[in-house]
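User: Structure tokens for this complex, please. No commentary.
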Amino acid sequence: SYELTQPPSVSVSPGQTARITCSGLTLPKQYAYWYQQKPGQAPVLIISKDTERPSGIPERFSGSSSGTTVTLTISGVQAEDEADYHCQSTDSSGPYSWVFGGGTKLTVL
Amino acid sequence: EVQLVESGGDLVQPGGSLRLSCEASGFTLSPYSMNWVRQAPGKGLEWLSYIGSSSSTMYYGDSVKGRFTISRDNAKNSLYLQINSLRAEDTAVYYCARVRHLGSYYMDVWGKGTTVTVSS
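Assistant:
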């Protein structure tokens, strides 16, 4: 079955840049989406279609794509950015097979 | 405010059944497709099921096919998930989420989840 691979954890100091990767064979053909999830809360969409930032999401969050890897970049990390980050895609053009990465825990040191 | 509120989670014994509900407020459910997603303790997100706006299309993840049934009642602005033959590995927080399709499929509104615990 199709998989997306994320690192389990990333740690950065406040003010630094955090980069979280997500790799999958169909990412060149299907868009990826990023969700932020804080403890005890529902996921929130923060990046759409690889690179687009929904309304209300701070500019320090950005997305990029290269081949089979998409990257979430958080510039000038703040303490409030400590959370789990999940990438999501589909393994086809239809809504019948959704896949998530395993999630990455971002720790702000 | 656009919101989804899940309910129906409980402590149940293995082999039992539950019906989860998800009520939409601040928007009309009928034009939207919907998903159920779960998260086991300490684990990542797992897609479970999708239903089209008119209930004409329904899809399921491999781990729940044959045991879970998704449905909706647009008149009640509500989504449901019937879960049968519960197993310990079904223990998780269950989320409903609104589906969007702009070039690809994603979820733009999530509920806060309802907890299902399967234990004897």
